[in-house]
Structures are given as structure tokens and as C-alpha cells.
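Lecture 7 notes: from sequence to structure.
We start with the chain below.
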Amino acid sequence: MADNYTQFSFDIDKLTSEEAAWVRDLLALDFEDGQQQKQIEEALGVPNVIECDIEYWPDFSFRLDASEGLGPKGAIWLYAEDSGNPWNAALLVRAFLAKFRPKDIKLFSIAFMSSKSMLDGFGGETYVVTSENIFSDAEVAGMIAKTIESGRQQKVSIGDLDIIIRRNNRKKGGE
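Predicted C-alpha cells for the same chain:
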């Protein structure tokens, strides 16, 4: 039997003392406590801004002020060594951006790994996080496959973005 892992590692740097306190306080809340669970969901915008359910919090590892040689001072390092929940990390980043840095965009990649070689046992995904939404390239990959299979344009609307995938009509070789 194989062990499967979801790994990621990224930081949010140049934290002010107010930003660091907000992150520290949010990550210290106990998800098992009903009142604190509501505080977590409210801070993350669940379900009012982002429609989803949180099953556990935070479900990833973190180090605030990753100045121990692992990242820049005044940063929070979010990561999963064995396995973690990148969606929860993305929810935290979206809420952080909405509260403190509404014009910033954060990208991070995820690796899907397996302890044994197996068919489709490895892969990856990239999240693009803004103050308003969380985007994943997995949806775009599915659209590309549908466009190739059907020969028809595919479109998805996410928030205020329209993503359109279509074949171009150029001949091979640039002619």
C-alpha cells in the first residue's frame, strides 16, 4: 500500500506587527470549540465570501516569523511536510489579502506525491489567490482537454474573470 502526500511551501513576507498578530490569533483558535470555529469561519469569509466547508483547521504547518534561517524575518511560512490542506492555506491567504493587502496576488504550487510508483500517483496544481477569490489551474487543464476533445470553445466565469479556451486557426509552422 502506498502513502500519498500533498505538499506545499510558501510564505507571506514583510508582515507588520498588526498583520502578524492577526495571523497568530487566527491560527491559535481551536476548531474543536464551536464558538472559535465560528470565529475562524467568519475571519476566512466562509461561507459568505467563499462557498465551502472547513473540516479541520488549520490542517497545515506554519511558522510565524520564519527568521530561523528558513525564510525572511517578519514572515509566515505555510507548508506541509507530509500532507496538508492547501485549500485551507489558500483561505487564510485570501482573508489576509482582503484585510491587509487587497491589491496583492499570491501564487503557490502544490505537489501530489506517493511513496510508491503508481499510475497517476504524482501531480501538481497551482493556486492563484487574490483578496476576492481563489483560482486553481486544475479547472483550466480540464477546459483545455474539453476543447481538444470537442473542438469547441470552453468558457468558465469565476468571479469577475472569464476564462476562454479555444483552438486557434493558424496553420502549423506559422504560415
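Points to note: The mean pLDDT is 87. The CA atoms of residues 15 and 74 lie 5 Å apart.
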